[in-house]
Amino acid sequence: MAILDVVTTENKKAGTVDLSATVFEAKVKPDLFHAEVRRQLAARRRGTHSTKNRAAVSGGGAKPWRQKGTGRARQGTTRAVQWAGGGAAFGPVPRSYEYKLSKKVRRAALRGALSHRLEEGAITVVDLLELGEFKTKRLVEILRGLGIDEGGVLIVIDAEDRFVERSARNLPRVGVLRVAGLNVYDVLHHQKLLVTKAGLDAIESRLADADGEASA
């Protein structure tokens, strides 16, 4: 079982925490990362692309010339796909790109992503992260004091905190997620994780039961 130091926002040791082996010592499987990230990105696609087929293009009600005797190929409408301005053949239509993976696979991928970050020493646990006001400068000072201001940082909190969430909004490489929204893409996209003690407890509660029904 891995043990991490718990620090304050001033980077002073405030204790230690035992990490769940099920969550933070899972087998790292890149193929699961690939499957889950593809699923997430596919679900984000709007799928609003559209073209008109020959039935949707206006005009072309009359034959361009008579059927026989002209020496030219017979044509029924100028809206056919071979005509300039005609409809598109097999063009894209609005659709959803979303598809599903099993809960078991999604949970295993998230455990693997967290375990990977732990192996890299990229997880910092803070006892409390309370700003008390909308202050981006204060959040930058905290990250700098903890030594994690370089590169991307994902801040994980247990519940809604509008001060933290809005204070991080203008920081280009800093993201904030509640535990309920923690996902593989964001864990892998950010180089480091800053997790509150309450957030860590919530992560383990969500993922520690290998046979649970909670979605990843």
In short:
Helix 5 (162-167) links the parallel strand 4 and strand 5. This protein has seven helices and six strands; from the N terminus they run E-E-H-H-H-E-H-E-H-E-H-E-H.
Structure explained in plain terms:
It contains 7 helices and 6 strands; from the N terminus they run ββαααβαβαβαβα. It is α/β, with parallel strands linked by helices and 216 residues long. It has a 6-stranded mixed β-sheet with strand order 2-1-3-6-4-5. Strand 4, helix 5 and strand 5 (174-178) form a beta-alpha-beta unit. Helix 2 (30-44) packs across helix 3 (103-119). Residues 211-216 have low confidence and may be disordered.
Summary keywords:
216 residues, alpha/beta, 2 domains, 7 helices
